[in-house]
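#onboarding

Welcome to the new folks! Below is a worked example of what a typical request in this channel looks like: someone posts a single protein sequence, and someone else replies with the predicted structure as tokens. Don't worry about understanding the tokens yet, we'll cover that in week two.

Example request:
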Amino acid sequence: MELINNASLKSYTTFGVEAACDHLYRIEDVEELKLAVQYLDQPLILGGGSNILPLGSIHRNVLRVELKGIQIINDSDQPLVKIAAGEIWHEVVLWAIANNLGGIENLSLIPGTVGAAPMQNIGAYGVELANVFHSLEAIEIGSGQLVTFSNEECRFGYRESVFKTELRNKFVIINVTLRLSRQHQVDISYGAIQQTLNDWHIEKPTIRDVSKAVIHIRQSKLPDPAEIGNAGSFFKNPIISSSQFQLLKQEYPYMPGYPAGDHVKVPAGWLIEQAGWKGKRIGNVGCYEKQALVLVNLGNAKGEEVWSFAQEIIESVRIKFNVQLTPEVNLWS
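Example response:
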């Protein structure tokens, strides 16, 4: 365990905003983690920092989970693969493809670590983590007790899980077990994937082809956090009632929407763009010119600046469409 006092979090988050925390613990061992969560008061848990926006100085203990390791538990047609929480998610996707294991290729290039993946049920291009999730192990903050959660017990929803609701800040995920497959059934239902594969003249795509297509799509419209600070999609796509959607369609005939049970999911990026924010800049913060769903740090933005910018977007979308946007990123203060 490494302790850094008065640590800068700038290099530990993809937004790259300047913020300090009183104590940062870098932990590579499960037993050390158990001790830390028993004796440190209400610690904040940090993984890859790809979904966090610090709003200022953090006067709390921050635990950066750096546990490593990948293990195939049962080598069958649908093997279970246990992955330590500190592994980089995209590197795990590439590892799976290299080992002929399908199921997560659509989730290529999603930033962050494995431990954060089930917290918000990461998803992209027609696939969610819940589709392949088997179980996870987590340590209870306070007691240090090891607890196993099944897929059902995680209560996954759209960018949601039990760890973002009633169990928020109560557990530290130490590993995730996925059920992958050697009998591949690729999902190319998302239009952009199909179009990309068509452009490449690929008629029978492999999991590697799908991964490459997803990487191509993401790189064409999303900024690289190493070059421009961002946290990917800043807002969730709002889910509204079918009746509200039909009323909005009367005024905005080209408004896109996708069935979500008895409701309709509306792309937040479309709403933000229609409200006039795409490519707009205020001070050191901007709305990315290629994807309105992404807010970017254009210089030395502070977390408060980013959040103020986001709140203006939320208000303008509410006024124009009577639709409430909700942040996908976690706000630290």
